[in-house]
Protein 1
Amino acid sequence: MIRLEKLSTSIFPPLTSNLNYKQMNKTKLFFVAIISAATLFVACDNATNNNNNEAKDTKAPKSCDNVHWSHKPGTDGPKQWKDLCTDFAACGGEMQSPVNIDKSTVVAEAALALPQFHYGNSTVDVVNNGHTVQFNVNGDNTVELEGKKYKLLQFHYHAKSEHTIDGQYYPLEVHFVHKHSDTDFAVLGIMFVEGKENPLFTKYLNHFPKKKGKFTSDDTIDLLSLFPEQKTFYHYDGSLTTPPCSEVVNWFVLTQPVEASKAQLDAFAAILHSNYRPIMPLGKRKVYMSAGK
Ligand SMILES: [Zn+2]
């Protein structure tokens, strides 16, 4: 997840409001994304300590190597990501994620077919990279979306949710990250609500690395069992929600949430430390909804 550009200031709307999109600033620069698959979602793994201060007043490219970023407001928080280093500049772009999904403005699109899953069973490595708990999968698990095949790379969690629906947060959101090419990713987002115990969490929660670290298991997961029964989705074009915020993601947020118990959601939230990015302006984009059930 790498992208190059530069940019100027940006004004973020209030977290829970979708009313202020029109106020967002219109400054802009566009640029060409250069993606390195090898660094996708790994960039932040390298985060150790900040070395970004020294380059602050120069126009020379500021390397993102070892640049520390955080979900917490502050000098390395979400509003500052775009200025931390050259390759994070996309974080100030106009097609950023997450967004609020306003159901009253969603466009029903009959041509948007339901995803066709070709998932199997996979062993997983559970990795806490300091920003999320991520399940790295193996094998050839793919999904067909908009006529294209995307391969599942990993899934990971955010607490609270990153997307909101009609301004409402959910306690947890999982992102299934798929790749078609270096400039074409599909992320399927699933919301959680409080309810019955989630079998996957029961299996792994006690093993989730609470700090940076990895848990490897020989157990296999039936990947599709992690999805809700109904596969209808909201769709829009957006970005990675963590630096470098590359605008290469086709987002598919499923309309039906899945359940986890309150104790499980609380346990997860305690590990994840509010690792959600604030809502970004939808701008000129539209959110579509799939047909079918
Ligand atoms: Zn995510």
Protein 2
Amino acid sequence: MKLLMTRRSSLRKKSDKCVTAQGKYSGKYALTEIMVCGECGSAYRRQTWNILGRKCLVWRCVSRFDNGTRYCKQSPSLHENKLHKAILSAINEYYDCKDSIKELLKSNVEQAMAGVSLKETKEIQKRVREIDDARNDYITLIAAGTMDEEALDEQFQKFYTEEQELNSRLKALEENNSIDNNKRSRITQALQNIDSSSCELTEYNDMLVRKLIECIKVNSKTEITIIFKGGMEVIVPVEK
Ligand SMILES: [Zn+2]
């Protein structure tokens, strides 16, 4: 495997190779945002091919896809699995700051752990406080003798019903959390594993690609150029 590596000045301007004709996509796949055609500068887009009933995922130049060979004549389609493999090997081999990969993986795991339930718990607690404040306001009005009593009864009943619902939801969330203790210890273990591992990535990961890579240029069917954030540029072979 022959690779070429250069380090650019950290003061270099942002590579204009990364600006595509279509502008930036904000999509599901990290590669949609960073991969450009070496021939015409258009973005690359993910496509599903159906070959004799078998699904096949490939990445193709947008211009080639939209206009055939009119503007872009030579650009190759790349099989996603081979592309991912090439990117992965480049990250493993050239990204010299292994610690930051570990930090990224850890923050990802932690985010997944905190998850939705924490957010929901906070929202419910906020609403409970709001109800409490509103009730206090009404009590002030009662004291001042400016409220119709019947209307108040109804309002207090509404508060009470909502509060009951919120509290039972809170309780359910707490129970969920305690069941999740098991899960939590597995996650703690996973975090420790990340710490003690050599941090060789074994699976392609969109999140990491977004954080680490600024741009990928498709040179040919068997070669891409990867520009890491920070400026390191490597030429990486892609399996045929
Ligand atoms: Zn092209």
Protein 3
Amino acid sequence: MRSQCPDCGKLYPVTKKQLRAPKTQVYCTQCKKKFIVAEILVEKTAKTAEANAFNQKKK
Ligand SMILES: [Zn+2]
């Protein structure tokens, strides 16, 4: 399981510990954006287009 930065699309590995704490936030090292990892989960083989669609639904 991975999480994706909503700003620049960089992927980060997500640990089980982070999933158990739904409000865990991380800073993207690439664009410095802060985001909640549990809100943006990406399957190993998921297409980024699906992740983007998910992000657009959320407001
Ligand atoms: Zn980023």
